[in-house]
Automatic annotation (TrEMBL):
<keyword id="KW-0479">Metal-binding</keyword>
<dbReference type="InterPro" id="IPR008949">
    <property type="entry name" value="Isoprenoid_synthase_dom_sf"/>
</dbReference>
<dbReference type="GO" id="GO:0010333">
    <property type="term" value="F:terpene synthase activity"/>
</dbReference>
<dbReference type="Pfam" id="PF19086">
    <property type="entry name" value="Terpene_syn_C_2"/>
</dbReference>
<protein>
    <recommendedName>
        <fullName>Terpene synthase</fullName>
        <ecNumber>4.2.3.-</ecNumber>
    </recommendedName>
</protein>
<keyword id="KW-0456">Lyase</keyword>
<dbReference type="InterPro" id="IPR034686">
    <property type="entry name" value="Terpene_cyclase-like_2"/>
</dbReference>
<keyword id="KW-0460">Magnesium</keyword>
<comment type="similarity">
    <text>Belongs to the terpene synthase family.</text>
</comment>
<dbReference type="GO" id="GO:0046872">
    <property type="term" value="F:metal ion binding"/>
</dbReference>
<dbReference type="GO" id="GO:0008299">
    <property type="term" value="P:isoprenoid biosynthetic process"/>
</dbReference>
Amino acid sequence: MTVAIDGLWTSDPITTLKPEDEREKLIKRVSGQKILVPDILSLMPAWPSDLPPNPEELIEEVNVQIDEWLLTINIDKRKKAKHRALGNYTLLTTAYYPHCKKDKMLVLTQFLYWIFFWDDEIDTGGELTEDEDGTLRCCEETNQCIDDCLGPNPNYTPPVGSRGSVEMLYPILRDLRAGLGPVSTERLRLETHDYVNGVARQQRVRQGDYLPNPWYHFQIRVADVGVIPSITQNEYAMEFELPDDVRSHEAVEFIVQECTKITVLLNDVLSLQKEFVSILTYHPHKILFPLFMNMYNLSLHGAVDKTLDLIREHYALCVAAEERLPWSKTDEKFNENIREYIRGCQRLATGTAYWSYHSERYFKKSQVNEKREVLLDLSYVD
């Protein structure tokens, strides 16, 4: 039986092999392999995986607005074209917030575009991949934007000379704030800061001489991953505000963290083919499989099986935690808000999986069979 993640987290951030040896061995062991991955959604059978009525029509309407908006933002045309063609982030929005009012879908989709545009600047292959000083400056600008827009004295005018990925965030946060209560606004401010600062920390880990301990790496990814602001945005999408004492309740916090872990794990499985490029360019720090292989001397198949077992374990823990939620005996509206918040946490995982199968950001649709199994090919280079 696979041991639960929390029991293996460690303060030791690196393994002990020579960096050249461990990287070269990993590349040789995985290059050219193919692996059939089972239907990830089947690992979370009780969780919602629905779309709004007439999703194609809704997605088409929002994408018309997205295309107009993309013309106005200061992002490289090639990057905009790539993300528009392969990302299908409007589908991801509808999977995360299927019961949201249509007029809010645009802002929520714009935020997801921002996440991917901004992260790609620092991620492997981006403009700032090898530039730690540039990354820190980018994070400082972004953190200032977050405080400008979500702090106590809102200012929605970007400073002169702001980079495009920061400039575009100002009106997005302005519009999100307009639909959030003060408690949710402050929560979103802190969570978005955590995401931005976490990306910088992850870059430092990737640039290290040694491969990190997988549990240490997973710990910082879960703590700082950008999906947590998307949970809070359920309060914007569905027009409610979760009180702080409820959000900080042990069971609610546990479910948020478990859903985040599951989302990270399933994303690592489904993005393996795409992230293989990171291994080829000597940055096998982005996903967990190479780190599991390195630490435990596993095959690629063994590392994938380990990750799938972890998804099953954390799903079971998360389902069990629902019994500990702070239900009211008299206030059904309060209970419905908790249910909606928890459904939002669950859709973080199921929506990410559903979107991965129906966009082509990570693999071609032709690689998915009728059982929703994916044949990932590590001889594939985008």
